[in-house]
Design brief:
- The protein has about 325 residues and is of the alpha/beta class.
- The chain has two domains: about 1-100 and about 300-334, NAD(P)-binding Rossmann-like Domain (Rossmann fold); about 100-290, Rossmann fold.
- Helix content is about 35%, strand content about 15%.
- The strands form two sheets. The protein has a seven-stranded parallel β-sheet, with helices on both faces. A five-stranded parallel β-sheet has the order 2-1-3-4-5, sandwiched between helices.
- Strand 3 (about 45-50), helix 2 (about 55-65) and strand 4 form a beta-alpha-beta unit.
- The longest helix is centred in the last third of the chain and has 19 residues, at about 300-320.
- It is globular, with a radius of gyration of 21 Å.
- The two termini are about 30 Å apart.
- The structure holds 1,4-dihydronicotinamide adenine dinucleotide (NAI).
- 1,4-dihydronicotinamide adenine dinucleotide binds near residues 77, 174 and 210.
- 1,4-dihydronicotinamide adenine dinucleotide (NAI) binds near residues 153, 210, 231, 257 and 297.
């Protein structure tokens, strides 16, 4: 099958080619999928996209008109796809529901440790032969309370790691994960989690229900000095409200691997460009905010698994045996 691979980066291509092993014709496109670039997939029955690509209704209609009937996502998240429109058009959408929850969980904890012990600042200081410790004081993770929102595959691993530090682990999720209860995680109401947690880490999907879950009211009900980590999706946090809470000093520190408007920024080198997004530019000015550009998934193990499942998804469809567990349907959106 001919597959147009949008947002194909040099670091990802070898993984895809190795997993493909000549099964499909992969057309690697460096550009992102958008209304302007949809026509590049003309004649490709399948299109593969990543999280920065736009698969909104008009784009899907353009792809459909060019002959595309299958969308294989190289991600678990599918908030960038208009699933209702794909359903209506009859475009099958398949994703990689699980690759390495460890990759993202470990990245989230890396952000916590860096913010807490200020490794990023210490690294720069020592290189400047500044060995003073002022401003670098952190806190023991042991004995602190971690609040985990979303205890699916990634959240469960985070709970395990936080437990290893000796943290009390609280969780909120409409679906209780028995593996978490078994390890002593305490499920409580969201407001109680906000009120009791020293560290809050987000691992739920972005959906109409979780859009701006962390808004001004939620932030106000959190502990003074709380650390907030988001490796899930940017839209879960109302960034303007977060900035206000950082300016007032109520929020102590923030680690972000995702940002609401990351589509215009992440996954490219903009080092010579003036950033036009004033909200993001403001976030960059805080000494207690650490941002990485959506690299939580970026481990060898995760990239191998993403490539393998993506190619297998296309092969399955070609052979008429869709893997239902990987299918994105309206049931998942609700
Ligand atoms: P999962 O589907 O295994 O778990 C998600 C959990 O969130 C489920 O237990 C679900 O019940 C829960 N949930 C749903 N609505 C909720 C709500 N309103 N409040 C609290 N919990 C809620 O998904 P997984 O694999 O753990 O991934 C979680 C998220 O991580 C993905 O949706 C994706 O957005 C993000 N992600 C980020 C990556 C990165 O590179 N930064 C890479 C992979 C995923």
């Amino acid at each position: 099958m001919k597959i147009a691979v949008y947002s194909s980066r040099s670091y990802e291509k070898p993984f895809l080619e190795q997993a493909n092993a000549g099964r499909h014709e992969l057309v690697h496109l460096r550009t992102e999928l958008s209304e302007q670039t949809a026509d590049l997939a003309r004649g490709c029955p399948a299109v593969s996209i990543f999280v920065g690509d736009d698969a909104s209704a008009p784009v899907l209609r353009a792809l459909f008109a060019s002959g595309t009937r299958l969308l294989v996502l190289r991600s678990a998240g599918f908030n960038h796809v208009d699933v209702a429109e794909a359903d209506r058009l009859g475009i099958s959408v398949l994703r990689v529901p699980a690759y390495s929850p460890y990759a993202i969980a470990e990245h989230a904890v890396g952000l916590m440790l860096t913010l807490n012990r200020k490794f990023h600042r210490a690294f720069n200081r020592v290189r400047e032969q500044n060995f003073a410790l002022g401003g670098l004081m952190g806190f023991d993770m042991h004995g602190k309370t971690a609040g985990v929102i979303g205890t699916g595959k990634i959240g469960e691993v985070v709970c395990r790691i936080m437990g290893g530090f000796g943290c009390r682990v609280l969780a909120f999720d409409p679906n209780i994960n028995p593996a978490c209860t078994a390890m002593g995680v305490e499920y409580i109401a969201l407001n109680d989690l906000y009120a009791r947690s020293d560290i809050i880490t987000l691992h739920c999907p972005l959906s109409p229900r979780t859009k701006h879950l962390i808004n001004a009211a939620a932030l106000a009900s959190m502990k003074n000095g709380v650390m907030i980590i988001n490796t899930s999706r940017g839209g879960i946090i109302d960034t303007r409200a977060l900035i206000a809470a950082l300016k007032s000093g109520h929020v102590g520190s923030v680690g972000l691997d995702v940002y609401e408007e990351e589509g215009d920024l992440f996954f490219r080198d903009l080092s010579g460009v003036v950033i036009q997004d004033d909200v993001f530019a403001r976030l960059l000015t805080f000494p207690n905010v650490l941002i990485t550009s959506h690299q939580g998934f970026f481990t060898r193990e995760a990239c191998t698994a993403i490539a393998r499942t993506t190619i297998d998804n296309a092969t399955d469809v070609e052979q008429g045996k869709i893997n239902d567990a990987n299918r994105v349907t309206m049931k998942l959106v609700a």
